Amino acid sequence: MTLPTLSFSPLDIGLALFELTAYAITAILVVRRLARNRNRLVEAASTDPLTGLLNRRAFMRALKAYDGEENMSVILFDLDRFKTINATFGIEAGDQLLVEIARRLDKVCGDHCRLYRLGGDLFALKPRGDAIQTRTEAAVARIRAALEAPFEIGPSHLTQTASLGVATAQGRVRSGAALFDHAHAALACAKSQHRGGTAYYSETLARDIERSHEIEREIGEGLTRGEFAVWYQPIVDRDGRTTGVEALARWPGRPGGELSPAQFIPHAERSGQIHALGLYVLRRACMDFRHRDDLRVSVNLSPAQFHDKRLVTDVASALLETGFPAERLELEITEGQIIDLPEQADAVMRDLRLLGVSIALDDYGSGYASIGYLRRYRFDKLKIDKSLIDGVGLDARAGQLLAATTAMAQALDIPVTAEGVETGEQAKLLSLAGVDSLQGYFFGRPQPAQVFAALAADGVVPLTSFKAASAGMR
Ligand code: C2E
Ligand code: CA
Ligand code: CA
Question: Do 174 and 62 have their domain in common?
Answer without folding.
Answer: yes
